[in-house]
Design goal:
This protein starts with a strand and ends in a 10-residue tail after the last helix. It has three domains: 149 residues, FAD/NAD(P)-binding domain (3-Layer(bba) Sandwich); 53 residues, no CATH class; 139 residues, D-Amino Acid Oxidase, Chain A, domain 2 (2-Layer Sandwich). The longest helix has 22 residues. 32% of the residues lie in helices and 27% in strands. By secondary structure, the chain is α+β, with helices and mostly antiparallel strands. It contains ten helices and 20 strands. The strands form three sheets. Strands 5, 6, 7, 13, 14, 15, 16, 17 and 18 form a nine-stranded mixed β-sheet that branches.
């Protein structure tokens, strides 16, 4: 069988796109996934936050998709009985030096339509989080918590119910064209299709090159490590507490997150991972390290952020240093209050100039669409991004709408 569209990658973005295609077009769609199950990497290794759209440059794809996707996510969870909570979060400036950055975040948030955010004085912070210390802050009532693996599983269920097929453990190994068809060689067999959409996260650049497409960027993996508050200290945090982030970096800094399944996470930091699936220091891939070491863009990035990098590694290796960063937000926290928890690996696209790609990055080629960078808030915005990609595919691939044929 020749499918109209093959989607490579069964993370939350790939599954949202597959669902959107089967809902809006008459296309036959198959999803192929390298791992043994869906949502094995970034989708299942994150803070589980429904982001508001506070930080992103107004007008950017991140801002537009986050704001639209956030409300779509809340509605989707309500419709399908997926546990979630719109609990709100507190962004805390811990010194006067951070006030200009807090001002800019507030400006961006309001420009992105977050009219209900509240500017708080140092005293008012205590009304929301009694154990916080700071000079000012923002209360962001739009933010929520969720388990994104459950969301991805529901996407997959709806996709299959609409006639779609997901083939796990079908790792893409080669691609060639056979007349008007694209032939994908995988570890599970051959897939013939007319069009390809690649949503491959940590392997996005490699899949693009394998398909003969210049990705224009390279994926550099960053591991984010978490601690978890011991149960008797959960009361230190009511909901979510964030620092004012460094505007030059696409990371939000270590923060506290109450989880939908119980407990409170603290983190993550951001250290260079030694493998694209390097969830621990002991997981090392010589090939992945070679990709980093031979990329000029990576070295330009390191030169720019080496001081920041040293600090992140210190926090990774030293619990005391990690807790010291958290104590800026909650001074009463002690080392005995937290234990090591899980970790995630973020696929960060880096350009040849060493700049971190800060927005969604999509490259189109003949009969192909490649998502090369889908940073946070990709999970929050997955319904919006999936719809965006499905609409792009419908036009570019000339797919028929439901009930019609082209």
């Amino acid at each position: 069988m020749t499918h109209d569209v093959a989607i490579v990658g069964a993370g939350i973005v790939g599954l949202a796109t597959a669902k959107a295609l089967t809902e809006s077009t008459a296309a036959s769609v198959v999803v192929i996934e390298a791992e043994r199950d869906i949502a094995e990497h970034q989708t299942s290794h994150n803070s589980g936050v429904i982001h508001a759209g506070l930080y992103y440059k107004p007008g950017s794809l991140r801002a537009k998709n986050c704001v639209a996707g956030r409300e779509a996510m809340y509605a989707f969870c309500q419709q399908h009985d997926i546990p979630h909570e719109r609990c709100g979060k507190l962004v805390v400036a811990t010194s006067d030096a951070e006030l200009p950055s807090l001002d800019e975040i507030e400006r961006r948030g309001r420009a992105n339509g977050l009219d209900a955010i509240v500017r708080l004085s140092g005293e008012q912070l205590k009304d929301y989080e009694p154990n916080v210390a700071g000079v000012a802050g923002l209360w962001v009532p739009y933010t929520g918590i969720i388990n994104y693996r459950r969301v991805a599983e529901k996407y997959a269920q709806l996709f299959r119910s609409a006639g779609g097929e997901i083939r796990a453990k079908w790792r893409l190994t080669a691609m060639h064209r056979d007349g008007s068809e694209i032939v994908l060689s995988t570890t599970g067999g051959e897939v013939r299709c007319k069009n390809v959409i690649a949503c491959c996260g940590l392997q996005a650049d490699r899949v693009a090159r394998l398909c003969g497409v210049d990705p224009l960027v390279r994926i550099i993996p960053f591991r984010g490590e978490y601690y978890e508050l011991v149960p008797e200290r959960h009361s230190l945090v009511r909901n979510l507490i964030y620092p004012v982030p460094d505007a030059s970096l696409p990371f939000l800094g270590v923060h506290f997150t109450r989880m939908i399944d119980g407990g409170v996470e603290a983190g993550p930091n951001a250290v260079l991972a030694l493998s694209r699936v390097g969830y621990t220091w002991g997981r090392v891939s010589p090939g992945d390290l070679w990709d980093v070491a031979t990329y000029g863009g990576a070295w330009r990035m390191f030169r720019r952020f080496w001081r920041t990098g040293i600090g992140e590694v210190r926090r990774s290796l030293s619990k005391k240093a990690f807790v010291r960063a958290l104590q800026k937000l909650v001074p009463s926290l002690t080392e005995s209050d937290v234990v090591r928890a899980g970790a995630g690996v973020r696929a960060q696209a880096v350009g040849p100039d060493g700049k971190l790609v800060d927005d969604f990055h999509v490259v189109e080629a003949e009969r192909m669409i490649h998502v090369l960078n889908a940073p946070s808030p990709a999970a929050t915005a997955s319904l919006s991004i999936g719809g965006y990609l499905a609409e792009m595919a419908a036009k570019r691939f000339e797919l028929g709408t439901r009930g019609t044929q082209v």
